[in-house]
Amino acid sequence: MRQGEAVFVDSGAWIALALSRDPLHAQAREQWELLHGAGAKLHTSVPVFIETFTFLDRNANRDVALKTTVGVAQVKVRGLAKVQAVFSFAILAYNLVRIPKLLEAT
């Protein structure tokens, strides 16, 4: 890998990295260290962000989902305003996921 090479990271990698019980967690950590060491520029997309958040929210818990997705956002954006916007987006995504549960409760 060349120094600073762009790499697209899909939801499976973020999920494996976030969940220590995932069968691919060790490989994900190893790849993360290699990419970080090579100074790779990590990229992802909004659909991947939402898919990762939704999976972790349903299969782990909200804290893990928020920690991971906000961590994903920090890879791509810089500056307080952008980080706050991405965090707000993560909260919005979480609330969208919760709407069916909230409607069932009423």
Concise synopsis of the structure shown:
By secondary structure, the protein is mainly α. It is 72% helix and 6% strand.
Describe the protein's architecture and organization:
This protein is mostly helical. It has one domain. 72% of the residues lie in helices and 6% in strands. The longest helix has 26 residues, at 80-105. It is globular, with a radius of gyration of 15 Å. The chain starts with 5 loop residues before the first strand and ends with a helix.
Please trace the helix and strand order, writing H or E for each element: EHHEHHH
Mean pLDDT across every amino acid position: 76
Beta percentage is 5-15%
Shape: globular
Query: Between the first and last Cα atoms, what is the distance in angstroms?
Result: 53 Å
Q: Count of helical segments? A: 5
Strand and helix layout:
Layout: E1 6-8, H1 11-18, H2 25-37, E2 41-43, H3 46-59, H4 62-76, H5 80-105
Parallel strand pairs: 1-2
Provide keyphrases for this structure.
106 residues; two-stranded parallel ribbon; mainly alpha; single chain
